[in-house]
Specification:
The structure holds two protein chains of two kinds. Chain A is built from 21 helices and 28 strands. Chain A is α+β, with helices and mostly antiparallel strands. In chain A, the strands form seven sheets. In chain A, strands 3-5-1-12-9-10-11 form a seven-stranded mixed sheet. Chain B starts with 8 loop residues before the first strand and ends with a helix. Chain B contains five helices and five strands. Chains A and B meet through helix 1 and helix 19 of A and helix 2, helix 3, helix 4 and helix 5 of B.
């Protein structure tokens, strides 16, 4: 099938697909893992901000078919609040206690024989609220006279830190030109097609919880959940469903519900199932943060970027929910982007408002960060009269500078950014595109070109979130570093190979790529190898970083798979060497056999050699343990702790992306038509081109949605008004612009196979690339996404126009 | 007209993928819930329960229909086709095969509904243009693929058939 028997790099169709295509794949709502399951429904707050005066559950509790009703007071009495890295007096429980802080916050839980009856009973719960003034305007929330969400904090600003790298003040003094942009970034979410779902079971003596769900962890959140439930880790067993119907980060936000359901199962004495509906998902699951930010960029006349200042005001929603404030720190140590600028300051303020709490979402902090940096580059180019491509080329980190230590601590592994830019310009036919723009403008049309470049951090350092703490606080808390990945490969007595990756994919094809890697190591085919990607914290090898996020599969997890496969291969080769009476180094694994190098007719079937480790331990080489069961645990050595100057290597690999967008605006309708979109990626060595392309196109769809359509809208009273998919507009096949993809691959020296993480991709850049094109078309820099019909029509009617 | 009291359970008999099934439904039971939780045919997925995402699409008497917008009792006596019935004797249909070849699915949650719609679409329009395919697909939301592979897969099959 592949040249030289190598599966890595080949477009291997996915192992996952047949079950998914025939309706046999099993998702959480298809599972009935224990008998006697009752169904939970949640009463949610209709108010953005209100005091709960009383809750009367008596009618609901006596409704036919209802097994129990619980309120926030019941949950708070049985659990501890869930903490975050920001040490402020906020008691976050998975259900409102005393006060509701966002519309949609859970207020009561009903358990019933089926979901229909449970929802009937919700209507019978009587809650008396005293509405409080809602806090929705982010800037107003920061003022001293604002109503407070959390009185004990004394402010809605729950976190404020400033950082300086190099000498930004001097750079701004020496600048020939400074550009400043103030901008608003909308709140949106990747809205996976499968909503949250879980089954929770409590068993006493000793107390233990088992939860089946479509969580994407366990992650560090397992430890936080154990704290809330007051059990040691071995008494909280998290099991993920075999398949997850999309996540894009959003499904980390299920964890408070897991605490809630576990507690309810204990209090009510029955296993409980809860499947979130779409309305619940759109108003109360999780989303990316909306921002009220500003950026300043200092340039020399020749276009050299000498300083950056970021002023970030992040709306975290009603509570600061772990792993937040990670979204504002994920990009932090790469605040220079793809450029060689050394003088940077960052001012981060996190603000609570009466919106739903934020969390992971595709690109996690990237769309917002690159919006600032890449809008500033483009505005700088226009202010200086330079070409938007050439100003970037002028500032790129040169290809001979890798590995490159960024001012805020990231270690960029490999790259050739100029080659990526050239590829993008070539694919876009940039000169012709610019000429076309000039012609269009002569005809009075609104045509614009925008670019954006990014580094794509992948394989997170678990310590980066502790940048939210001062160096002194970090020292007191003890050291943090690393990003562990695990893999177990076993061979059973029949000689069959099973791989456990604990990587909880939601459509990224981990099983296929893992099988490719192991097939190459063992001389088998991917079809010979079964792969389990789900987690069971009781029976799997896992650690703090286990789960699926920050593109960690092709940056870190592959290292664990490769190491476990190497150990298995060494063992099988050693057994075969003894049988064939040659040295171990003379044995190769190929074509389903263990054979002598150069003498392929002297071979043994792989399965027979492997099975013998079980059937005949006494016949194994001296000192060899019987059986094959190898677990590799790796943590990239690059991921050290933050230093006392707040520098940290936040990720293992830094891919590169260069996007170019050309848009035309119809001033009559406000429609932004994407005429051309080119995206060039450096993902290092490609493990499976089918999957890489699928991730790029999928990320592009999310970025286009964020740029043009998607927004979780709240009215001034804090009512969410995008609670259905007719109000929250996802991109459909008709709206998808044509995407041209290019690759420039510089292998990563920091990963086992030279691959880099990828997957966030264009979700980080399409919003800013399209914004830059819209700014170019309209001839103005004061524009904010999403570029919906109404908004763009207004802008066009105000008479911008790039004359 | 059939009248079912609130809370009363009514026997519903349907043919699904050529096999006769019968089960009980209340008047308000959605067809999607009946298929999944009464008949235990979990291949049909529910994404929004308000008729927008298309994940729950099944074929009823020859037409692609959202099973979350129909009550089970309305389908009594109907011939229903679901994703479980698309392969024949374990052999994928040409469209299923094209989906795999073109990487037209990632998480696969929306895929059953899209396969049902596209199968019925190609029966009535065997040689569609790309715009027609995209127009048909716009009745479905997929958050993983950006639709590119899906469009290619459907056009592959259309091209082979014509």
């Amino acid at each position: 099938m592949t040249e030289g028997g190598r599966w890595i790099g080949a477009p291997v169709p996915r192992k996952e697909d047949e079950a998914l295509l025939t309706g046999r794949a099993r998702f959480i709502d298809d599972m009935e893992p224990v008998p006697g399951i009752r169904h939970a429904a949640l009463l949610r707050s209709p108010h953005a901000h209100a005091e709960i005066l009383s809750i009367d559950v008596s009618k609901a509790a006596s409704h036919l078919g209802v097994y129990g009703v619980l309120t926030g007071a019941d949950i708070a009495a049985a659990t501890r609040p869930i903490p975050s890295a920001v040490r402020v007096p906020i008691d976050y429980y998975p259900m409102a206690v005393g006060k509701v802080r966002y519309a949609g916050e859970p207020v009561a839980l009903v358990a019933a024989g089926d979901r229909y009856v449970a929802e009937d009973a919700l209507d019978l719960i009587e809650v008396e609220y005293r509405p409080l003034p809602p806090v929705i305007d982010v800037k107003a929330a920061t003022r001293d006279d604002s109503p407070l969400l959390h009185e004990a904090v004394g402010s809605n600003v729950v976190h404020h830190r400033t950082f300086r790298y190099g000498d930004p003040d001097k750079a701004f003094e020496e600048a020939d030109r400074v550009v400043r942009l103030d901008w608003t970034f909308p709140r949106y979410s990747s809205t996976p097609m499968e909503t949250y779902g879980a089954v929770a079971q409590f068993e006493p003596a000793p107390d233990r919880y088992t939860i089946w769900s479509n969580f994407q962890g366990p992650f560090i959140l397992h430890a936080l959940m154990c704290g809330a439930l007051e059990v040691p880790g071995n008494r909280l067993r998290l099991i993920t469903a075999p398949q997850s119907g999309g996540s894009f980060g959003i499904k980390q936000g299920i964890f408070p519900y897991l605490v809630l359901l576990a507690t309810a199962s204990r209090l009510l004495g029955m296993p409980l199932k809860w499947i979130e509906d779409r309305l619940e998902h759109l108003v109360a699951s999780s989303s990316a943060s909306n921002r009220e930010d500003a950026v300043e960029a200092a340039f020399k006349d020749d276009g050299t970027l000498i300083g950056l200042r970021f002023f970030n005001t992040v709306d975290v929603g009603a509570y600061i929910r772990a792993p937040e404030p990670a979204s504002v720190y994920r990009m932090h140590s790469a605040s220079n982007g793809a450029y060689g600028v050394g003088n940077i300051s960052v001012d981060n303020r996190l603000v609570t408002t009466n919106r739903l709490p934020i969390g992971l979402n595709r690109g996690y902090g990237g769309p917002q960060f690159f919006f600032a940096l890449e809008r500033a580059m483009e505005a700088g180019a226009r202010a200086l009269g330079l070409d938007v491509a050439e100003i970037r080329r002028h500032n790129f980190i040169p290809k001979d500078a890798f590995p490159y230590r960024a001012p805020a601590g990231s270690l960029y592994d490999a790259g050739d950014y100029e080659a990526g830019l050239d590829k993008a310009l070539d694919l876009a036919d940039y000169a012709a595109l610019c000429a076309g723009r000039d012609r269009a403008r002569k005809e009075g049309r609104l045509f614009g070109i925008g670019m954006a470049t990014a580094v794509e951090p992948s394989g997170s350092n678990m310590a980066y979130v502790t940048l939210a703490q001062t160096p002194e606080e970090r020292a007191r808390a003890g050291g943090r570093s690393g990003g562990l990945a695990t893999c177990t490969i076993s061979i059973d007595p029949s000689g069959a190979v099973t791989v456990k990756t604990v990587s909880t994919p939601a459509g990224q094809g981990h099983a296929t790529v893992a099988a490719q890697i192991v097939a190459d190591a063992l001389g088998l085919t991917p079809d010979d190898i079964d792969v389990m990607t789900e987690v069971d914290t009781l029976t799997s090898a896992w650690s703090l970083a286990s789960g699926n996020y920050a593109n960690r599969f092709s940056s870190v997890v592959i290292g664990a798979i490769g190491e476990a496969a190497r150990r298995v291969a060494d063992k099988v080769r050693a057994v075969a060497a003894e049988d064939l009476e040659v040295a171990v180094q003379d044995i190769e694994l190929a074509d389903g056999t263990a054979r002598i190098v150069g003498v392929p007719e002297r071979s043994l079937p792989f399965r027979r050699v492997a099975a013998r480790t079980h059937w005949h331990p006494a016949g194994l080489p001296d000192g060899m343990a019987p059986g094959v069961f190898e677990t590799a645990i790796v943590s990239p050595p690059e991921l050290g702790p933050p230093d006392d100057r707040d520098r940290v290597a936040s990720a293992v690999t830094f891919g590169f992306i260069c996007d170019l967008a050309a848009v035309e605006i119809d001033p009559g309708t406000g429609k932004v038509e994407v005429r051309k979109y080119v995206s060039v990626h450096d993902v290092g060595n490609v493990l499976n081109p089918l999957i890489v392309e699928g991730q790029i196109v999928g990320g592009f769809a999310h970025g286009v949605g964020g740029a043009l359509l998607e927004e979780m809208v709240y009215d001034a009273d804090g009512n969410p008004i995008s609670g259905t998919l007719t109000d929250y507009l996802c991109v459909t096949a008709s709206e998808m612009p044509r995407l041209t993809i290019g690759h420039v691959d510089t292998p990563s020296p920091h990963t086992a196979l030279g691959s880099k993480g990828m997957g966030d991709g264009c979700s980080m850049l399409a919003p800013v690339a399209i914004a830059n094109a819209v700014a170019d078309a309209l001839g103005r820099e004061d524009i904010d996404p999403p570029f919906t019909l109404n908004r763009v029509w207004d802008l066009a009617a105000e008479g911008g126009g790039a004359g | 007209m059939l009248r079912i009291e609130p809370g009363a359970r009514h026997r519903v008999t349907v043919t699904v993928n050529g096999r006769l099934y019968s089960g009980f439904a209340e008047a308000r039971t959605l067809l999607s819930d009946f298929l999944r939780h009464e008949l235990k045919l979990f291949g049909t997925h529910v994404g929004c329960e308000h008729g927008v995402c298309g994940a729950c699409t099944v074929n009823i008497d020859g037409r692609a229909v959202r099973s979350c917008l129909l009550f089970a009792v309305q389908a009594d006596g109907a011939e229903i086709g679901t994703v479980e019935g698309l392969a024949t004797d374990g052999v994928l249909s040409p469209l299923q095969e094209a989906f795999r070849r073109r990487h037209a699915l990632q998480c696969g949650f929306c895929t059953p509904g899209i396969l049902i719609s596209a199968t019925q679409f190609l029966e009535t329009n065997p040689d569609p243009t790309e715009d027609e395919v995209r127009e048909m697909l716009s009745g479905h939301i997929c958050r993983c693929t950006g639709y590119e592979g899906i469009v290619r897969a459907i056009l592959d099959v259309a091209g082979d058939a014509s």
